[in-house]
Amino acid sequence: MNFTRRGALGGALAAVLLLGACVGSTFETAYDQGVAAEVSRGWRVVAVNVTVPRTLVVSEAKTSLPKADIVWREDPETGDRYDQVKVIMENAIRQGAASVRGSRAVAFNVTMTRFHALTFEAENRYQNAGVHTVDFIIQVVDANTGATIVEAQQIRADFPALSGDQMRAARAQGQTQKKMITAHVAKTIQSWLGTGPDIRGQFSRSGG
C-alpha cells in the first residue's frame, strides 16, 4: 500500500471514529436547582474562585477526540492548561453574574470537573460535528462570614461546537472558541441565577 492511499484510509477511519464516537449520546446544559431571582438580586459577587484540580487529565494529542478531562488549544501550548481554563472560567462566570448588584457580598466557589473543547484537527476536518463540554461544581458563600448560602451543585454547560465551513466563517468574523465558550458559560450562569432566560436543554451530536 502506498503512503498516499494509507493516509487517505487513515483520514477516513478517523472520520468514522469521530462521527461514530458519540452517536446517540446526549449532552446538556443543566443544573438541578436554580437560584430564585429575588434571592440572587440581593447579592453582590465580590469573588469568583475557580479551582481546576491537578487530578484532571490534560491531553495535547493532535487527534479529533482526545480522551481527557481538559482539552484546550487556543491559548499557547507552552502555557499551563489548568491556569488557562481557570482564567476563562473566572471571566465567564463574572460576566454571567454582572447583573446581580445587591448589598450582600458573596463569593462563588467553583471546581472544574471537565473542560473539553474541540481540537483544531476536529474543527478543520469535519462539518456539523463536535461539542464543547464544560462541567463544574458551584457553591455560593457569604464573602464576610464564609457561611454557605447555596450548597455545592453540579452545572453542565455543554453546547454544540462550530466546525468546518461554519467555524471558518465565524473566525473570519472575529469569533473564537474562547469567545463562544465564555458567552455560553455566562448565559448558563445567568440562567442559574434567574436573571436571564432558562437555557437548560439536551441535544445529540457526533464528536463530543
UniProtKB/TrEMBL annotation:
InterPro entries linked to this entry: DUF6778
Presence of keyword Signal: yes
Keywords, alphabetical: Signal
Pfam families: DUF6778
Signal sequence interval, chain numbering: 1-30
Record has Signal as a keyword: yes
Domain of life of the organism encoding this protein: Bacteria
Protein name listed in UniProt: Lipoprotein
Organism field: Neogemmobacter tilapiae
